[in-house]
Amino acid sequence: MRATSGIAFKLAAAALAIGILGSSGAQAQDAATAKQLFGSVKLPTRSDPEPLGFYAKGCMAGAVALPTDGPTWQAMRLSRNRRWGNPAMIGFLEQFSRDAARLGWGSGILVGDISQPRGGPMITGHASHQIGLDADIWFTPKPAQPLSIQQREDMPFTSMLDKSKFLTVDPKRWGSTNAKLIMQAASYPQVERVFVNPAIKKKLCETWTGDRSLLGKVRPIYGHDEHFHVRLSCPPGSATCQKQAESPASDDCNSKAFAWWFTKEPWAPPPKPDPNKKPVKPRQVMLSDLPKACAAVLAAPSRAEADATYGGNTMAYSQEPPVPAAAKSIDAAVTEPAADIPLPQQRPNR
Ligand SMILES: [Zn+2]
């Protein structure tokens, strides 16, 4: 057990010792938004792993990186530098990738964004993914032939939905292995939630014959039709990680809340702004909005990438510098609406 103030103090002391929190630095920090600050840090802290705060409002100390390549996984979009997580998440991904390959999901999984080196809010995509306990996994299996760094930048996402219909899974793309993959993800005790598009949850509700209680962990959300999102519980004993409400114990297939997704309301365009009123600029999240310890996390000394890569395997990023993809976020991908059919548009993650 470690209190927030304890880790904040230790990290702040370390930062002061190397003179990072000088007065001009502190002023620059005041003006920049939290996403600018956390988005510009390239390496994790050297401290013990700690999720600090909530999935959608926090940061992380002591992150480790998922190796870019493993026997049963490949990390995608390497230029985004978002393959950092709590060691519990990185260990989970390695285990899940082996189990996925065993299920017949290609030769393993393609891993999208986890978190930035010190977590925190991001400049593009994602409301969550801030404390190293969220990860995106593609609905495309890892091919037998490894993808090059450039292919990992450019490979397009494949939606599991038939976009000509309202919230409907495409039977040409979705099969029993997809269903097994999601339910496998939900089966681990440390997995708290698996976010998928409502159409995917519905398909599972209609077809899953295994343990139905696991379906309660499968949560409907906007987007998430070309990737799914796994969220782990706070690691046992972490005093600084803010827990989320438990997911339903039942399959949650017949609840009012789930039925709501299949009404018009969630897909209606937002109300037009009143032309007589001055538009209100949305307030940016500042460092002071995050847990206090996050200022110290930002300022703490770095750990080298090779040293902080889980299992020590890094494919030297510099050997083949990737051309950054047009900063299109996996979570910000917007579907092209066809005709008048209301289709899932990306909304902020809950
Ligand atoms: Zn996600």
TrEMBL record:
Q: Which GO terms describe its cellular component?
A: outer membrane-bounded periplasmic space
Q: Does the keyword Oxidoreductase apply?
A: no
Q: Which domain of life is it from?
A: Bacteria
Could you confirm whether the keyword Protease appears in this record?
Answer: yes
For this chain, the annotated S-S bridges are: C59-C294, C205-C253, C234-C241
- For this UniProt entry, which residues form the secretion signal? 1-28
GO process annotations (BP) = proteolysis
Question: Which GO molecular-function terms appear in the entry?
Answer: metal ion binding; metallopeptidase activity; serine-type endopeptidase activity
Keywords, alphabetical: Disulfide bond, Hydrolase, Metal-binding, Metalloprotease, Periplasm, Protease, Signal, Zinc
Q: Which InterPro entries does the record associate with it?
A: Peptidase_M74 (IPR005073), Zn_M74/Hedgehog-like (IPR009045)
Q: What is this protein called?
A: Penicillin-insensitive murein endopeptidase
Which species is this record about? Neorhizobium lilium
